[in-house]
Amino acid sequence: MTGRIRIGIVGGGLAGITVAIALSKHRHVDVHVYESSPQFTERGAGIGISPLALEALDDIIPSAIDLLKTSAGAVEADAARLVIGSGPEAGALVADLGQSAGLTMNRAPLLQTLLSLLPKEMLHAGKRLKSLGQIDSGVRVTFEDGTNEHFDAVIGADGIFSSVRDHVLGGKEHAASPAGWWDCRHLVPFEKAREALGEESFKVDRQYAWLGDGAAMLHGLVENKTMVQCIIAVIDKSFSADRKREVTRNSLNDALPASWYEGSVAKGMVDLILDQEDPKGYAQWEHKFTPTYANNRVCIVGDAAHATSPWQGAGAGISIEDAFIIGHLFSNISTAAEIEPAFKAFDALRRPRCQQVVDNGRRTGRLFCGQDETAGVNAEKLSRELGLMFGPLGALDLKLHKEDALSIMQEFLNN
Questions:
Q1: Which is more confident, 241 or 17?
Q2: CB contact set of 35 (below 8 Å; sequence gap of 6+)
Q3: 384 Cα distance to chain centroid
Q4: Is the pTM of this model over 0.85?
Q5: CATH for 5-56+106-177+287-414, options being 3.50.50.60, 2.40.160.90, 3.40.50.300, 3.40.50.150
């Protein structure tokens, strides 16, 4: 087929692969994904996908929910149960978030499941970006192995420290910065977690989040309910730029206020986190502000565009929303000349939505860790304030969002 629009995606994580799947549905689009690592892999904690994000994913991949359950070990979970974890109100219920079930799973099997939907000839590992430059006929990409490619457009999905982002924004003025927390994580067998945390911590089939002074603790079932993802997150008062740090019992005890040990969960969570060969803590980073997601025929998506702290579990979901919109925009264009209006529409539509998620995520972290003056560590006040933070996350009407994207693009095309 001649006259196809050739798209290069830089970055082969969740965002890049989901965008590739959305674009590969259109015969007039020739898409290729370039990953800097020798293999397409995902690292990190379990991941949650909200009902709204699943709706978007099901539009991209028919029967996506069944696929993730059978191939990625996804577990159905009704969002999160929020409980006070420290101080005099320890054990008090704050809220049960979510009225319909989302899915939780590990990142690695999720990515492998998505990769299986793409032809191998679309996927290029071991291709680290060296430079890209926009020319009259599109975008020229140079990789560190000395090879070059020419595309009609490039989509950057190369993560929080994105090189494509630097190109789109013309420098590092709006680079990622520390969000103000660090966390440590461990995946443990269900029986071990239940023994350490007690039956009460698995009373309902939800992720549990324990809120308190200066820290928060989370645990949730993954891998067909055989494993439990455990997370301790604490305030990083230094806002250190170090991305990784050693974690010991002493460092956790120093980071956790004594009030945590008045509750039922802290000792067990600390024991579980330390029950690994080399426990590490990782700083949380975010993009506090991004002035644009598009520069002519280069666009950024996912963490490259709107990295957010993990407090609302929304990073994966808004990346899937990005792919949903990109897919529908490209289904309504047929020539390379229409790419720039499509990217402008993507920016105009998605940036306000994602900026709200970034901002609300930051305040949610302060609420979880008892640092918000409005709520402190009071269950009733936290319930009210967190409702305001989580409400907009699931309130998006995807059908209307898609229609708005196409309408905005048409305005740019007309002008």
A1: 17
A2: 11, 12, 16, 123, 124, 125, 126, 127
A3: 25
A4: yes
A5: 3.50.50.60
